[in-house]
Amino acid sequence: MGEPSRLPEERMLVEQLRLQLGNIGSSVIPTILVALLLVWVLSNERNALALRAWCAAIVVLKLYLAWEARRWLASEISPERARRLLRHKMVLNAIDGVVWGALAWAALGTTTVAGSILVVAVLAGVAGSSMSSLAPILPVFIVFGAAELIVLGAKLWTMDDPAYDALGVAAILYTAALLGQARNGSRAARAAIGLRFENLELIERLRVETEHAQAAHRAAEEANLAKSRFLAAASHDLRQPIHAQGLFLEVLARSKLSAGQYDALANARATWQASAEMLDTLLDFSRIEAGVVEPQMQSFHLQPLLNKIENELAPQADAKGIVYRSRETDAAVHSDPALVGLILRNLVSNAIRYTERGGVLVGCRARGDQLLVEVWDTGIGIEPTQHQAIFREFHQLGNAERDRRKGLGLGLAIAQGLARALEQQLSLVSKPGRGTVFRLSLPVALIGVVAGSADTAPSAARVFDVRVLVIDDDESVRTGMRQLLGAWGCACDVADSIEEAQALARAHPPGLVISDYRLRELRTGAEAIAALRAEFGAELPALLITGDTAPQRLREARATGVPLLHKPVLPSELYRAMTFVLNGRELDSSFAGLDTSPLALSTR
């Protein structure tokens, strides 16, 4: 079997084109809504005609791109047609970049300062979004980004204002950073395509050459390890810009904006939150694979947990017109409440997703010294041949088109992995067309007093009075952290290396260090914190932030003993983390509740 790099270039190009064409359809409605919203928010007597013309051009172009993509996907793309289609896509995306850049000509200089900020933010967001969707074919993204940058830069050049000149330089640097990310994304896409063809060849070989089954099985395991490494690398590269985007959105939220601009910001934050949640799901799966899930066993009543899950997920059932009900129980169990909550949350989410009529019921049933927590649904049911397959990662029923609204196919794999970590059984009974019941077995608590948890959420009104040293090799993250921490009242120094951090600390001793785990030249944030503590005292408060999901990296970061957050970090989560480490040095008991991810609570 050949390496992915040996795949014929024509065949690789065809698959890259199909992957990129498949990304277009999901962006049509958001693009049109953003264009219409910008016209509504930014229009005035000076620019109304230009903005409407720009909006019409965007809508027509996006609809044509979607129509054309659908037409190409419905036909067979031969290697001979692929080259011609590539040139055609480059021309169309160059036009797309010019049209988006024309927004600057239509709006900059004719609207308020807040409006100008919104225009630049939208163009930056469009460039970032295009990086994700166009990255499978790097030249297509290059012509789009170059076209948008040239048109935007030409407008900024005519503004005759040093601030806009600086903004033009920032746009160049931002585009260069996106180009680096797009290059990584293109490589990852090519690797994924190569691995997919390898797996197809492997299946064929297993069918034809059954006598070599054992050797083929080892090859499949190697391919799976390669997939895991690819997934971890891609997750890290995606977390960096999404983490920085969250910081900038929080800073923008503190600006004076109009009602329409706040609506646009709310949509941007909702999109960011959805991306962060998908990456957190991948992180949960990586933690299980890494073997760093350590259950924190305690006795607790189930009803408060069931109430919390119902409050979170019942609106999803209401939106589908189905019933969600939890039966009251006074039962208490001895387990990890965070892991049990995550298992049940995944089971209930899955039940709601696959139920169109009827409803979902959560109840408990005593069986000797065990309590069965049951999640019933009246959904599509599961064929007996699929009862084992549904617990495999990325396996989904009825989602051949990989609709992201139906999740990533990791929920049941995570639930099964967590049940194993708790040494408990997760089982199912299902009738196709009638529904399914999942049962989680938990030990009944043998004591009368059940542990409770105190609310340790910090007050949102606090303003920090501390000097913070931020160490990160990503320029956008450093900029975002400086602005956000400044808004919280902190004096902030930023460094991109351990040596620069030490020099800054000697000039201005920090009261808190926040460091990315992976730094340049294969060095780590743990090394940076150790070096600073050696010079300024072992009690120097510190936080580590990481975008890594590779199992080995997770184990290394966790072994440092420094409180660990995972990118993309919610600003509220960062705020709470800072509050915890600045309020005291004993973090073993208090920091566990800091992460909003239930799984993270059990991996400290």
Description:
The protein is 59% helix and 11% strand. The chain is built from 18 helices and 12 strands. The strands form 3 sheets. The protein has a 5-stranded mixed beta sheet. Helix 7 (162-208) packs antiparallel against helix 8 (213-253). It is globular and about 80 Å long.
List the helices and strands and how they pair.
Blueprint: H1 9-22, H2 28-42, H3 48-74, H4 79-107, H5 113-134, H6 138-158, H7 162-208, H8 213-253, H9 259-290, E1 298-301, H10 303-320, E2 323-326, E3 332-335, H11 337-353, E4 359-367, E5 370-377, H12 411-421, E6 426-431, E7 435-443, E8 467-471, H13 475-487, E9 491-495, H14 498-507, E10 512-516, H15 525-536, E11 542-546, H16 551-559, E12 564-566, H17 571-583, H18 598-601
Parallel strand pairs: 2-4, 8-9, 8-10, 10-11, 11-12
Antiparallel strand pairs: 1-3, 4-5, 5-7, 6-7
Helix pairs in contact: 1-4, 2-3, 3-4, 4-5, 4-6, 5-6, 5-7, 6-7, 7-8, 8-9, 8-13, 9-12, 9-16, 10-11, 11-12, 14-15
What's the end-to-end separation, in Å?
A: 42 Å
Average pLDDT taken over every residue: 77
The count of DSSP E runs of length 2 or more, i.e. the number of strands, is: 12
Largest sheet: 5 strands, mixed
Structural class determined from secondary elements: alpha/beta
Dominant shape:
globular
Count of DSSP helices? 18
Question: What low-confidence regions span 5 or more consecutive residues with pLDDT below 50?
Answer: 1-6, 398-408, 449-461, 585-604
Give the C-alpha Rg: 26 Å
Sequence of strands across the biggest β-sheet: 2-4-5-7-6
Summarize the amount of helix as a percent range: 55-70%
H/E element string?
A: HHHHHHHHHEHEEHEEHEEEHEHEHEHEHH
